[in-house]
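Contributing new complexes? Match this layout with zinc ion.
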Amino acid sequence: MVTVAALLLMLGAQAEPAAAARKAGASPQGPLSELFGAGRPKLRGALLPVSIPLPKPRPADAPAAGPETPAAGNQAPAGSDQPAAEAAPAPPSACRLALSEEIAIAPSIPDIHGAGGCGGEDLVRLEAVVLPDKHLVAVKPAAILRCAMASAVADWIRTDMAPLGLSLGSVISDLDNFDSFECRGRNRVVGARLSEHGRANALDVRAVRLANGQSISLTDRTVSRGLRESVLHSVCARFSTVLGPGSDWYHEDHIHLDLMERHNNYKICQWNVWDPLPPIAPLLPAERPDEAPPREVAVKSDAVKPDAAKPDAAKSDTTEPDAGGTMPSTKKRR
Ligand SMILES: [Zn+2]
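Output block (do not edit by hand):
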């Protein structure tokens, strides 16, 4: 039945051009149509005898769609089932659905499948967090993160950091993104295990800015200790890894946050909130000039033992910078 119907349709479809061709051939306007279709005359000749007895199946109109539909229905599922399944985009994840525009401006981006396990799926570009009062906290620059990590960051900003900003008499306006997705080993060590940054599962935060222009560096010793401790408790309750000053030599100037999954939900929270003023460094220059007597001794000893004095001076010169260098100066980053 189907093939018969299809055949009839084909013939019917050809019958019209054939009829039209007949008219065209009869009329003397031929030149143009002849020029356009050089092959038509042959077809016309072949079809004419066949098409004449077939004006009946002329169902090119809508009604004819009736018998067509089963044919189309039979063919479409067989041929189009698999392509349709492949072409259909994956349904949005629960995380994606939850991370609505009321929570964050975080458009989805294509999955990344890089070398060495780098990349991830269900990725977003976190551009801003939307506070409950509709204020935007811009993430600068926008962070490439897995949806779950972006969602955790958004929740942290909305729930914990926004009230903190209000307690300071302003509103949080910016989150200083020091690093998000980056295909690399831990701490940028070549050959080291893949960092959670390489899995788009980590964010390095250096500071938070307020609408009044104030910038709060999370690792700045001069920032209120209480404020930094409240941030510490906040992030350690939310993220599975928190690394800051005192954790290693790579996190003295920013806070690393990630959602790495470990056995038994083991968490790492390593962030020493340093006291505002380290006691050792300021004392060093104030030691000597108080007492005069040592100078005479020094002069004598210089006169008597010039050779011995020099090594001493050399020692003190080398020890001071060392002491100063090991304490606060850590210029390695991440
Ligand atoms: Zn990091």
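Reviewers usually confirm one structural detail per submission. For this one: The pocket of zinc ion is lined by residues 179, 197, 202, 204, 256, 334 (CB under 6 Å).
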